[in-house]
Amino acid sequence: MLRHFAIVLISYIFSLYINKLFILASRCVDREQRDKLVAEVGWYDRYLEIGRVDRDANPSPGNKEGGLSNIVEKAMGSIAKSGTASISEVIGPGEKPTKHGLICACTPASDIVCGPSQVASGIGLQVFMTGRGTPYGLEIAPVVTSSPTCRGRGFLFDSSNELSSELLPHNRLSPSAPRFFFYLI
């Protein structure tokens, strides 16, 4: 998608500790974007402090069943799914991107908050990556839910139409990657 001048948003990074940001910060195209990333995550740290909420909160029961022990592991999985492309721009919740390429949209990790934040940022389609087949949808934008580990479902369109898991690319070299790309287009 990025090679074809798409604007691609990644989210969920608020679950990361500030000292883990080097993983994403090293992918930012310039110092301005790295500073914005640190500022966005720092804002979230202060927000949690005000509410006396612990960032080490446990993930959902389904995440625990899947082997995750804390929310930081979930955020690291989100980063891994984002690939290795450079981050062109960092935006806050609901901000509109001004650049093309991979955009780090700093949204909370809650699906119900992240999706609408991405819609406010202008997405036209959301690819919702889920390890366990979480049912999810947005009224205002189509959602392709992809779940490589969910038996019988590879990805779902608007969380209702089942399609073959053969279309889901497991890595960028997968023979199914072009078919998945054209399905999204």
Explain the overall architecture.
32% of the residues lie in helices and 15% in strands. With 185 residues, the chain is α/β, with parallel strands linked by helices. The protein has two domains: 1-108, no CATH class; 124-185, no CATH class. Strands 4-5-6-7 form a four-stranded mixed β-sheet, with no helix packed on it. The protein has a three-stranded parallel β-sheet with strand order 1-3-2. The chain is globular, with a radius of gyration of 16 Å.
Order of strands across the widest beta sheet? 4-5-6-7
What is the overall silhouette? globular
Radius of gyration, in Å, reads 16 Å
Going by helix content, strand content and strand pairing, the class is alpha/beta
Q: Report the mean per-residue pLDDT as an integer.
A: 75
Unreliable sequence segments: 151-166
Q: What series of H and E elements makes up the topology?
A: EHHHHEEHEEEEH
Please indicate the percent range of residues in DSSP E strands (runs of 2 or more): 15-25%
Can you tell me the number of structural domains? 2
Percentage of residues assigned to helices: 25-40%
Number of helices: 6
Number of strands: 7
State the separation between the terminal residues, measured CA to CA. Answer: 9 Å
Largest sheet: 4 strands, mixed
